[in-house]
Amino acid sequence: MSDDKSIEQFLAAGPFGVVGASTNRDKYGNKVLRAYQQKGLTAHPVNPRADEIEGQPVFRDVASLPDDVGALSIITPPAITEAVVDAALARGILNFWMQPGAESPAAIERAEAAGANVIAGGPCVLVVFGYRE
Question: For the chain, what is the total number of helices (H) and then of strands (E)?
Fold first, then answer.
């Protein structure tokens, strides 16, 4: 599937989880959450060590996200990405946007084997959304 089609399918699957959301506004995990907010999209931050990010309550893990979440932006180290994808697949989440640096060949392989839509090694959500500080 082309990047455009994958992105279109991803965006149609929201609300979104932002796994690796950060309280630090200089980190990409925070900027990705703010990019969703700037677009007026519902996105839930996921971080095991924070209570609130950008005025939103934080979910500790993928398992605790609301049932209607259909897509995840992932901003984590590759080894964590693998666990995130496994937890998401167990919940039936089948849309993943692995931000540059979060990609894991094993996670991509497992997700695609499950029939998931995977965006990896391609455009960053910040660029696609036209994020601005």
Answer: 5, 7
Place of tokens 């996105």: 43
* Average pLDDT for the chain: 96
**Owner of token pair 């692995």:** 98
At 122, is the pLDDT very low, low, confident or very high (cuts 50, 70, 90)? confident
Q: Retrieve residue 49's tokens.
A: 């060590």
Q: Which of 63, 68, 66 is nearest to 89 (CA)?
A: 63
Q: Which domain range does residue 48 map to?
A: 3-129
* Angle between helical axes of 105-113 and 78-91 (0-180°, round to 10): 20
**Domain containing 121 — which CATH number?**
3.40.50.720
The total domain count for the chain is 1
